[in-house]
Structures are given as structure tokens and as C-alpha cells.
Design a protein that fits this description.
The complex is a heterodimer of chains A (113) and B (113). Chain A has no helices and eleven strands. Chain A is mainly beta. In chain A, strands 2, 4, 5, 9, 10 and 11 form a six-stranded mixed beta sheet that branches. A five-stranded antiparallel beta sheet of chain A has the order 1-3-8-7-6, with no helix packed on it. The radius of gyration of chain B is 13 Å and the shape is globular. In chain B, 0% of the residues lie in helices and 53% in strands. Classes of the chains: A mainly beta (113), B mainly beta (113). At the A-B interface, strand 4 and strand 5 of A face strand 5 and strand 10 of B.
């Protein structure tokens, strides 16, 4: 069965600091991986997706994620945090076929001025 | 851009009422999904559908039913609303092909009094 673990339910960084949100997955086959962002009182918005074309994936708003098969990880990074990055972030995995995404429990990012 | 529209952003109902949550997508997606989101629990899948008149149970279907009479519309029904169904409800859609991301509506915040 697929699963996703997001380490840290809440991460706090200073404005301008590096953002690192961790995601580990389990899958019996090469996965498709996704990061979503949710701003308060809104739905989820796709940040980026990994579909095996390249291990480093660039997304919107300056975020990127690196697929590391040996570590079964897909961590999300941004070099310099902005106040507008404060939101909840979800990692999701899809192993194969036409099945629903499996989501992690989310990490709430706070950015301190 | 894909547009997933949920009929209400906020809804207040009473215990025992039959509640309908509506979701419409405009991109001819085959798959549609209903989730509920609660603090600390992340997103939990209630029901999903791969085609008109088809439905599959997710992780927490108890107390809910769904209807998909047209491809673009997926309705979630609370047969007899209870206070423990107070939550944020999110609808999503995706293409049938494997590896496709899900696109979300803005959510309905439902309160059962």
C-alpha cells in the first residue's frame, strides 16, 4: 500500500531563510509525486509534480523538489521564504493506474518577519 | 485552467437534515473525488467516481452517499447530518490517465448544529 509521511506538522522560518519541507513515501512501484499548497479558507493548489522526466522538479512561486529514489524522499525547498509562503503544504503519491492520490497529513509553514 | 466549482463556501445545517454538497468541473475530467479535511487528520477520501453513475468508497464513506448523473457534476449527500460531520469538504477532479494531478475546488465549510 502507498503511504506518505510528512515530517513536522508545523515548520517556522524567518523571512529570507531557506524553506525545507520533508516528504517520504512508500510505494512498490515507481511513483508519481505531487506537492500542493493550501492558503487559508481555500482549496489545494498544485505546486509541482514528479512524473519521472527529471529528478529535480521546479514548481510555481520559486519552489522546487528533488526526487531521491534511494531515500524514498521528495522534499520541497525554496531558497528564500516570503511572508506570502505561509500556508499548509501537502505531499501526495500516486503509484500506478487510475487510483486516488494518497496525501500526507500536511505541514503548516509559518514565516516570521 | 481547470475550474472546479463547489456550490457553497459556507453552509450551516441542523442535525438530522439531509444535506447536499454540489461540485461541478468544466474540463471534461473522468474522475471526481470528495474529501473531508479536519485539523490534524489531513485529507480523508470519502467517495470517488471514475465515470457517470459509477462510484467507489473511499476511506470514510459511512454516513455519506454520492451521485454522479452527469460527467461534470458530482454530489455528496449527508443522509442525516450529525455534528461529527462538521468539517471542510473538498471536491477534486482529474483525467482518467494514470499519473494525472487532481484539481481542487475552494471547499465548503459545513457546520452542523
Amino acid at each position: 500500500a502507498q503511504s506518505v509521511t510528512q515530517l513536522g506538522s508545523h515548520v517556522s522560518v524567518s523571512e529570507g531563510a531557506l524553506v525545507l519541507l520533508r516528504c517520504n513515501y512508500s510505494s512498490s512501484v515507481p511513483p508519481y509525486l505531487f506537492w500542493y499548497v493550501q492558503y487559508p479558507n481555500q482549496g489545494l493548489q498544485l505546486l509541482l509534480k514528479y512524473t519521472s522526466a527529471a529528478t529535480l522538479v521546479k514548481g510555481i512561486n520559486g519552489f522546487e523538489a528533488e526526487f531521491k529514489k534511494s531515500e524514498t524522499s521528495f522534499h520541497l525547498t525554496k531558497p528564500s521564504a516570503h511572508m506570502s509562503d505561509a500556508a499548509e503544504y501537502f505531499c501526495a503519491v500516486l503509484s500506478s493506474g487510475n487510483t486516488p492520490l494518497v496525501f500526507g497529513k500536511g505541514t503548516r509553514l509559518s514565516v516570521i518577519a | 485552467d481547470v475550474k472546479v466549482t463547489q456550490s457553497s463556501r459556507y453552509l450551516v445545517k441542523r442535525t438530522g437534515e439531509k444535506v447536499f454538497l454540489e461540485c461541478v468541473q468544466d474540463m471534461d475530467h473522468e474522475n471526481m473525488f470528495w474529501y473531508r479535511q479536519d485539523p490534524g487528520l489531513g485529507l480523508r477520501l470519502i467517495y470517488f467516481s471514475y465515470d457517470v453513475k459509477m462510484k467507489e468508497k473511499g476511506d470514510i464513506p459511512e454516513g455519506y452517499s454520492v451521485s454522479r448523473e452527469k460527467k461534470e457534476r458530482f454530489s455528496l449527500i449527508l443522509e442525516s447530518a450529525s455534528t461529527n460531520q462538521t468539517s471542510m469538504y473538498l471536491c477534486a477532479s482529474s483525467l482518467f490517465q494514470g499519473g494525472q494531478p487532481q484539481h481542487f475546488g475552494d471547499g465548503t465549510r459545513l457546520s452542523i448544529l
